[in-house]
Amino acid sequence: MARHLLGIRHLDKDQIEDLLSLSADFKLRVIEGKPVPKVDKVVVGMLFFENSTRTRVSFEQAAYYLGMKTANFSASSSSMSKGETLKDTILTLRYERLNGLVMRHRMSGTPTLAARHFGGPVINAGDGQHEHPTQALGDALTIIERKGDLDGLIVAIVGDVEHSRVARSNAWLLSKMGAEVRFVGPRTLIPPHSAMLPGSVYYDLATGIANADVIICLRLQKERMSEGMLSSVGEYAAMYQVNRETLKYASPDCLVMHPGPLNRGIEVDDYSADGEQSAIHSQIENGVFVRMASLYWAFTENRESETI
Ligand code: NCD
Question: What CATH architecture is 13-131+285-299?
């Protein structure tokens, strides 16, 4: 049985804790130049059907540290541009004896479909509006490093929650670990209550971030929006931007986080993105270590491997 990482929603607290402590351990080893256990003789396909900078490069870097080989795949130069179905592409990679897949796709649920047909482990690197589990793990590691624990923290997720897989994976992870999750944004960009996401909803920024320990800012994901969801970007920024002024509503040592890519001047200003309260660089750095942990976790379930 392959161990997939398709989302946070179906992980339990113990599994999340295992992944986070594995990530912290890998970080220490890499930073201190200590040996890292290898997952050798493994080729992992990097299937990015959507653009990516941080996620893709950090998976490559993570695989390199673990001694894995990556096989790159670009949808535009593959046979999918000749009309091949996703299922046939996945089966092709299976028969070419790739051992695992890291996959990003604009449609929710595609990594689950891939997992059904591939055979080896599949790691979701972001699917549509559904989940982005490794981003949530990196964010959690960053928060724990700065705040000590997730339990009892108030975390406000601000902006385009509706289109954000980052918001969903973070909300599942943070609530499972005992944090209070708040979704803050305009009515058109917050999913209806029927979405059953774990968190409370605020349409007013000042109230939503009041006493928050962490603010996770989200980009307006215009590529996933339909017409009429936003009256204007300027109006959005005036009401929901996390900046020098609005940050005063949060707790004085509130962390400012953002999964990237940033649209400066819209959801954040330079003060909150680059100032002392920003944890954005740590999120990027920790992305490598949680992806090492995720690859290791997925590939070592049934392998003889060095114990870490
Ligand atoms: C996010 C994504 O792709 O979901 N970026 C990322 O992976 N760091 C967020 C976004 O695109 O706004």
Answer: 3-Layer(aba) Sandwich (3.40)
